[in-house]
Amino acid sequence: MTIPALQRPAEEMAAASEEGDSEEAGLIRDAVAGEGRSFDRIVQIHSPRVFRFLCQMTRHRQDAEDLTQQTFIKAFHNLARYDARRPIINWLLTIARNCALNHFRSARKWVEIPEETASDAPSPSVEAEQREEAAGVWERARACLSQGQFEALWLRFAEGLSTCEAAELMGYTQTHVKVLVFRARQKLIKGGLPS
Questions:
Q1: pLDDT digits over 52-74, tens only?
Q2: What residues does each domain of the chain span?
Q3: What is 137-195's CATH number, 1.10.10.10, 3.40.50.20, 2.80.10.50, 3.40.50.1220?
Q4: Distance from chain centroid for Cα 136
Q5: 148-164 pLDDT, tens per residue?
Q6: Quick check: pTM over 0.70?
Q7: How sure is the predictor about 133, in pLDDT bands with cuts at 50, 70 and 90?
Q8: How many CB atoms lie within 10 A of CB 32?
Q9: How far apart are CA 80 and CA 135, in angstroms?
Q10: Using CA of residue 36, residue 38, residue 39, residue 40, what is the dihedral sign?
Q11: Per-residue pLDDT for 188 more than 70?
Q12: If you placed Cys at 122, which of 29, 35, 109, 126 could pair as Cys (CB 3.0 to 4.6 Å)?
């Protein structure tokens, strides 16, 4: 049994890759040479995907927006260090992942609210968030998979990265990523998705 929402047509990914490769290479060359408009175009092309990735990691839109901006600022300052033999999206997602991990490490601890001021009823924003999480395969997958399984599955199928690219991005071996994806898929197939 396959999960169609987790798969993207190979032809669609290949066509987009071939189309964007030559334009992207020129943009990168121009951006490294100091052409600001070229870097702006790189941001336009890749910011939706970086933002989507960060939304999945942080589960908070404003944090994802801030981290997306931080990702592209870091990319701009380190553009000369980019290895042009690799797709730029992999490099950007690596920067984004590191920004998110740093964000989690430096996040403030929650301040406990005294019981007399706290309400037992969930706030409207919490209720809306709960409804959003109940919809869609990805939200339900997130609910039943470990962080590593979800991240590996997301990188492989939602972002369309190869096992090698996902392993490099996560800092794991290819075998580890394959195991994470296999276990995640088995859990989803065996009914791990809550209804």
A1: 999 988 888 999 999 999 999 99
A2: 21-105, 137-195
A3: 1.10.10.10
A4: 17
A5: 998 898 888 888 889 99
A6: no
A7: low
A8: 15
A9: 42
A10: positive
A11: yes
A12: 126
> CA 174, CA 162: separation in Å to the nearest integer?
10
Asked whether the beta carbons of 54 and 68 are under 8 A apart, the reply is yes
Mean pLDDT of 11-20: 45
Q: Which CATH class is domain 21-105?
A: mainly alpha
6's CB contacts (< 8 A; 6+ apart) are: 137, 153, 157, 158
Residue 34 gets the label, from left (phi > 0), alpha (psi -120 to 50) or beta, of left
- Residue 139 in tokens: 């939200």
CA 157 – CA 42 distance, rounded (Å) = 23
Q: What is the DSSP letter of 30?
A: H
- Are the C-beta atoms of 53 and 96 separated by less than 8 Å? yes
Q: How many beta carbons lie within 10 A of that of residue 157, not counting itself?
A: 20
**CA triple 49-51-52, angle to 5 deg:** 65
Residues 6 or more apart in contact with residue 152 via CB below 8 angstroms: 166, 170, 177, 180, 181, 184
Tokens at residue 53, please? Answer: 């990735």
Lowest mean pLDDT among 42-51, 140-149, 176-185: 140-149
